[in-house]
Amino acid sequence: MPKRTDLHKIMVIGSGPIVIGQACEFDYSGTQACKALRREGFQVALVNSNPATIMTDPEFADRTYIEPLTPASVLAICERERPDALLPTLGGQTALNVAVALAESGDLDRLGITLIGASLEAIHRAEDRSGFKDAMLKAGLDVPRAGTATTVDEALALGDSIGYPLIVRASFTMGGGGSGFAANRQELATLAARGLEVSPVSEILVEESIAGWKEFELEVMRDADDNGVIVCSIENVDPMGVHTGDSITVAPQQTLTDREYQQMRDAALQVLRVIGVETGGSNVQFAVDPATGRQVLIEMNPRVSRSSALASKATGFPIAKIAALLAVGYRLDEIVNDITGETPASFEPTLDYVVVKVPRFAFEKFSEADPRLTSTMKSVGEVMAIGRTFKEALGKAWRGIEKTGFDLGGEDVSGQWPVGTEDLLATLAIATEERLHLVERALHAGHGVDDVAAAARIDPWFIEQIAEVVDEAAVTRGRPLSTLTARELWHAKRAGLSDARLAVLTGATEASVRRHRDALGVAPVFKTVDTCAGEFPARTPYHFSTYEEEDEVAPAVRPRVVILGAGPNRIGQGIEFDYACVHAAYALEQAGFESVMVNSNPETVSTDYDTSSRLYFEPLSPEDALAVCRAEQPVGVIAQLGGQTPLRLARILSEEGFHVLGTSPDAIDLAEDRGKFAEILAELEILAPPHGEARTIEEAREVARRIGYPVVVRPSYVLGGRAMEIVYDDEELETFVRTAAAASPDHPVLVDRFLEGAIEVDVDAVADATGDVFVGGVMEHIEEAGVHSGDSSCQIPPATLSDEELDTIEDITRTLARRLGVVGLLNLQLAVKDERIWVIEANPRASRTVPFVSKVIGVSLARVATWVLTGRTLAELAAEGALPVDPHHYRHLSHTSVKAAVLPFGRFPGVDTVLGPEMKSTGEVMGVDADSGMALAKAMVAAGHALPTGGTVFVSVANRDKRAIVFPVKRLADLGFRLVATGGTAGVLQRAGIAVERVAKMSEGPDNVGEMIRGGRIDLVINTPFGRGPRTDGYFIRTAAASAGVPCVTTLPGVFAAVRGIEALLGPPTEPRSIQEYHAEAMAEPMQGRLTFDQAAATTIAGEPRA
Amino acid sequence: MVLTDPSPVRRPLRGPDAVLVLEDGSAFHGTGFGAEGESFGEAVFNTGMAGYQEVLTDPSYAEQIVAMTSPHQGNYGMNHEDPESVSIQVAGFAVREASRRASSWRSESTLAEALSRAAVTGIEGIDTRRLTRLLRERGSMRAVVSTVDLVPQSLTERVRAMPGMAGADLAARVSSASVYEARDLVGPATTDLGRVFRIAAYDFGMKRTILRRLAASGIEATVFPAHTPSAEIASGGYDGVFLSNGPGDPAATTYGIDATRTLLGKVPVFGICLGHQLLGLALGGRTYKMPFGHRGVNQPVKNLQTGAVEITSHNHGFAVDPLGWERGADGTVLSDRGRVALTHWNLNDGTLEGLRCLDVPAFSVQYHPEAAPGPHDSRYLFDEFRRLMAGGPGTGP
Ligand SMILES: Nc1ncnc2c1ncn2[C@@H]1O[C@H](COP(=O)(O)OP(=O)(O)O)[C@@H](O)[C@H]1O
Ligand SMILES: Nc1ncnc2c1ncn2[C@@H]1O[C@H](COP(=O)(O)OP(=O)(O)O)[C@@H](O)[C@H]1O
Ligand SMILES: [Mg+2]
Ligand SMILES: [Mg+2]
Hints:
heterodimer; B: alpha/beta; seven-stranded mixed barrel; 30% strand; binds magnesium ion
């Protein structure tokens, strides 16, 4: 049956900020869905709080709301938009839970809105863990023994009857939220309490543990005629007990016979029928007992998931797009497979390659966090690699993960294995991010494949593959590079050994390995991902490299520009950079070039095969990026949009004769090398914090003495404030210089004077080759300098900066752009203190705030930058209406936009929530409103810190903040809040005439503030840190608040902002508005429409390659 | 423990040099596994990702060198439960990588060991995607896999000297030499469904899972050699006749066509794959050799009777030509045995995948509803055979 004609307007819900367990895969799926629905003629209204997404670009929906994803806020939008249908299955668990709330409250019925994609009943049957089990048992499917509990006592009773070890799993959660293993009653009691709290319906499943079994996932699509297909099978290398999101996985499954696989396939289709998923995609998880083959069902998600994104990228089958089309009535056989252009979507993709996914973790950012991998997801991103064999794909994934040493298989740079006395087999029994490296080391040390497999509980087939890599490495180890024959190198490369690893094995450099390979003609070829293993000709230019015979990439017609992507998401480099890369692809296309995307992150829009003209799914390592450039012979390479990752490749590509567009590698060095940069600032008479460089602890002490404490120490060449700290004395200095040196060993440690109490400012600008500069926006941070710009909130227009200050900031930006030789994007961070403006750093590349600024001002900075990179001038672009007429557009907006960060502390129990110069956030949200207080409140609500409008506030602040805290706390009291405080703070408040109750600190014995927080008796915590270290009272207060989910403000400006937000929430509600409306209102004269590109001129790019 | 010594190489990483050569002279250099020697056959590719043991033992692959498009083969080894016939049937096996280790609780030997025992030569390490694309563009070709003669030129000449698949009668060669009862191989038919039907099954290269599926539908089969005269069957008082899958050119399998023609109308008939082609020919239709055939487990087939799309398992290089007959206004074929509905179609390329006689009790499908390997979407066809024999509603005349 074709598409439904009773629907006209469809509302799509996004997934909100990037958090652990829910990342940019939902931007990918939402973008696909919006595109597909609009192409079908539907009007689309979209709501998502995440400004860094492509889907929230104004062109992807008719009305785009950047508003919090709470039932109340989405309801207000529904009231305004009156859509015919709500599609909640493409926005992760967040969208699903909002939709359930609105359906259950009766609001959808009242407004005549149909739920499409999944019915309320189906969602309940799947997400309610006990209902799911019952339905499965009834359908004759096997599940682990379990029961559900709604109280801790019920859980303990279940524990007694099922027996230990057990796993606790919470209903309506994702990413293993609220789950964990219990070996005894005591552990169960703790876990049960946490799980009940995390589950939105206060329900947990207490289940027999089958940790160590094999784990599988099937991605299934089903239409309303009961046609079902399995899009992809995924096998976890790590066994049950390690969350799928944290497991190394492989597609297609490798170790089941057809008989077992078909049994699983039957069960998966049966699950969809029983649950009632009729129009869309779902994923179904299974466990298999490796001793007997018994198969049990673990769970199913009646929506597009993280694994669906992986499955889409792994197979070329666009799950989200097809799910959207099924939701509006199409049948699978009515949809064409884009890749072949002739066969229908009602088939099962078959792979003639192997896909490996490796998660990326951020434990180095959370030193107190437990690095063991469990049923609760902890990874912050993932890399996918395609090879013709598992070994090749695994080798690529290690390169793509971009962590020092990961592509060396654990072997250290001196070519030695770290010699330890520990029992390797016992160590690798514990799942950690390095486990496969330990496997390699154990095999190298002579342990047998079976022993290693048994210890790690990993299928021996995978261990055997790693053993083959070890054996292949052994062929080259210790041999002079020049003695390696073409055949030996060929086999080494086919086993996935990187040039860097071969360099270590042969005692050579990576560059000389490459030259030796070149001389012997050992080079990769490129194959195509075609969904059909070559059975039909493929139309889609989606490629990967492999060491084989035939290269099948068709020569391009138009001149090509390579865009180097950002690789896996990590803290400090996330979806914002993918956003810029995607815009570059669109901009190049408009300008007449073929865009060639290189990226390794399966969650992204950039790795969708229809984003760019050609997609190379490859790691962003020197050897892989170079291979793509050699194959494509581009007229230029864009290295400034994917964050720090491609910036590191700029020099080598330029040395190999490729034209790095825009800011040259030398200019990049000028900005990145803090020493050189400081000289430039001095030369231009721009203020910078006094600073010095140190390679030893003695030097560091000397510098600190010269510039005076407090100081900031940091390594050069890092992103996200890695290993950066504020240091108050010599003793702290010593410790921190050590960590900084470990994070970036080749570079000196930098010591800067810490500007205490300064206002921090971010600027995003585009400079062209004539030296003209367009300042997109100046953002004023809410938190003071010292909180990493990625973690602090900021707003446009700036809240307190004067026009003179803004003028000066813009002048500095222009001067620096010209002096550094920036062509393209420039991000500047500054601090304003005592009416003086200091430059903290300059990043000659896209920044985290580019999407935010773009969305606020209605101009895509990344697109403008891309056109500039292809030789256009800003003057031309302005004349064609691509830039706002008002040069100070960002200052004169009638609405306020606030960006707020989202932090993962809930995932890492015991990690201090204090913000500092090391970035810890995973994502961001935006609040926008005509009223600036409301914009702040929306940003906080969207970030998950729902501000209370009544109740009890606990206050405990550092001495230096005691005076300043009086005013906002007085305001809270006036607004009707009850106040409690610890001794010192209470005294200050009482003396100011504020009624406050005194409460004991955690260290002051029982009935203390910790118990109040845990008992749900506190609605807001205000705690600014005093004294460092993990065992202070402040630490306990903050971690208690984090685990109880109570909003906790840790900075003074944050307190002021919170109070303004609360005031706004207590005032009259404001009407939500779409960004299209905001943009139209802000721009007296609309900009779009007059852009002209001379397509014929798109043959070369001005400027010479730096050969 | 000393950790600095390089570990000994665990086992040879690669076998002896080997080469695969096609009749057009294309050569693929790799290494051998399984038996050393030379194997000649028709090179074809299979796109299934799992199920190599069923493929290797499927008699329809007789005299073919099968290239698997999925790179890793042999991962879960070989066991005694999954074979589709008594032994490995392929002439040669070409893969990107043959697993040195078999990992499964059911595994009893490695792939290489099984090929060695069957004296079949395998080649690994070749660019199987290049091979697949070549076969897709130029059609299936005669080929050789060799670990002995490694010179492409001489091998090409010898390949060109061998006969092709067109016109080849191979069914008799793989068929059982004597009559046997299916129950001796797969156990008795289920009695859960009521009456047990007794059928005669022509073995043109019968897959065991067909017998299992028949038994699961309450059908007990006596299996007859390919050349069994139809009179012997007709006099046996069977409830139905089954025409099995098998290798070779259906048009050359004249004894099968003749037997089908005689039995048609006398007793309900169900055919699979070669059996389907024989039914088509017996109905006066014609068959043709496809450029590179269908071999895999992901082909979408639409059943026009229900509108459902089935994901199906395929292994055929010939097909029944839907243009081989006069067609009525409603699309039904007008054969000398009455009207025939063309019921199943391949959604990928429009190949005819199934037919049903409307005036005599007979139907057939080109694909493999027994799967093995492949999805179980079409198992219902065995129950349909049962209904046809029971003379139930919707079963023909
Ligand atoms: N009964 C069990 N025994 C051992 N591990 C389990 C069990 N059930 C689930 N797990 C592990 O916990 C992980 C998370 O469980 P799952 O139900 O998939 O949660 P989520 O909804 O967060 O994906 C799984 O990937 C699996 O590794
Ligand atoms: N001299 C300084 N005085 C005050 N705060 C600083 C100073 N230097 C850096 N910071 C703070 O540290 C954060 C991170 O520093 P930055 O140089 O931007 O590192 P990154 O390269 O990781 O972004 C800044 O956002 C700012 O809040
Ligand atoms: Mg899961
Ligand atoms: Mg910074």
